[in-house]
Amino acid sequence: MNNVTLSGRLTKDPECKEFDGGKAVCDFTIAVNGYKKEDTLYIKVKAWDARARSCSKYCAKGSLINVAGSLRENSWKDKEGNTRKELFILASDIEFVQKPQDEAGRNTNQQPQKSEDREPTPVQSVDVVNEEDLEQVPF
């Protein structure tokens, strides 16, 4: 069974893209604390459609969130022809726990910028990954 549940803070504002067909994707990284500061893990997360729009609307750098989903692997060839791979969590559930904090440790009252206020990033159709394709088991 491939289930992952983590709690962590966003390391930077989420990067969200909207496609012509109405689909949206949001990529971000969360820092998950270990026992010591040097044990902190940085985990990439990808959210699609409604979850992506919610992240764009309610998350910003420093937000504390809970993420549930499954581990996925993305592979590609770099410019030198080497195969590169990355692991990420495909989010199936995201809980917004706490807004970002300022330097004094207080929750900020500033709302993250809404997705409607952002210009969508143009994407060519070759960059589109269909979420349903990711759900199919390869065996």
Question: How do the helices and strands line up, and which of them pair or pack?
Answer:
Elements lengths: L3 E7 L4 E4 L5 E9 L8 E8 H10 L5 E14 L5 E16 L32 H4 L5
Parallel strand pairs: 4-6
Antiparallel strand pairs: 1-3, 1-5, 2-3, 3-4, 5-6
Number of helices: 2
In spatial order, strands of the major sheet run 1-3-4-6-5
Q: Tell me the name of the CATH class.
A: Mainly Beta
For the record, what is the CATH homologous superfamily label?
Answer: Nucleic acid-binding proteins
- CATH architecture label name: Beta Barrel
Our estimate of the beta-strand percent is 35-45%
pLDDT < 50 runs, ≥5 residues: 109-116
Short description:
By secondary structure, the protein is mainly β.
